[in-house]
Write a structure and sequence with these properties.
This protein has a single domain, classed as Aminopeptidase (3-Layer(aba) Sandwich), CATH 3.40.630. The chain has five helices and five strands, in the order βααβββαβαα. By secondary structure, it is α+β, with helices and mostly antiparallel strands. The protein binds coenzyme A. Coenzyme A binds near residues 22, 82 and 115.
């Protein structure tokens, strides 16, 4: 049975195998992951016993806007509604019930998010990527 949690006090090392499965998160370090968890407002994690099999996180002002990041389900557990449950738990979380608009960025999972009620019509996301703007070291 898969259980879901909004606690942040799990071992951050559990996230590293999940990060390796997502192109944008590959190579993240334990130190940065610890720091990221400290400053993230809400984390929803999915567990098969003691194994972390999915997670998603939110940055928010708790009133107007919330952005959803890093939704990843372990490849062995995909297609079992775990990703859907993580998103639903975020959208309906008591601490986020005042939030007007949830925003996220996706390269190729539009159909997944559309099945959960998200729309790509109203907004176009833009990014500034520090890695692409880094000056070469002298
Ligand atoms: C995208 C991801 C989180 C989906 O998680 P999942 O647990 O496999 O998805 P679910 O089983 O909850 O599927 C929920 C719904 O989305 C649909 N869906 C899932 N993945 C999909 C995909 N890649 N394309 C289209 N639809 C998809 C399912 O058919 C289901 O629809 P239904 O409720 O009408 O049957 C998972 O595939 C993943 O971690 N991928 C790698 C990381 C990634 O790309 N994350 C997205 C970041 S933007």
């Amino acid at each position: 049975m898969i259980t879901y949690s909004d606690r942040k006090d799990f071992d951050p090392a559990c996230l590293l195998p999940l990060f390796e499965q997502a192109s944008w998160a590959r190579g993240r370090t334990l130190e940065d992951t610890q720091e990221m968890l400290v400053h993230t407002h809400l984390v929803i994690s999915a567990w098969d016993g003691s194994r972390l099999v999915g997670y998603g996180r939110v940055l928010t002002d708790y009133v107007y806007r919330a952005s959803i990041w890093d939704v990843i389900v372990d490849a062995h557990y995909q297609g079992q509604d775990i990703g859907g449950q993580i998103i639903k738990q975020i959208l309906h979380h008591p601490r986020l019930k005042r939030v007007d608009l949830f925003w996220l960025c996706t390269r190729d999972k539009q159909a997944f998010y559309e099945s959960l009620g998200f729309s790509a019509k109203e907004q176009i996301g833009m990014v500034w990527d520090r890695g692409r703007h880094a000056k070469p070291t002298p």
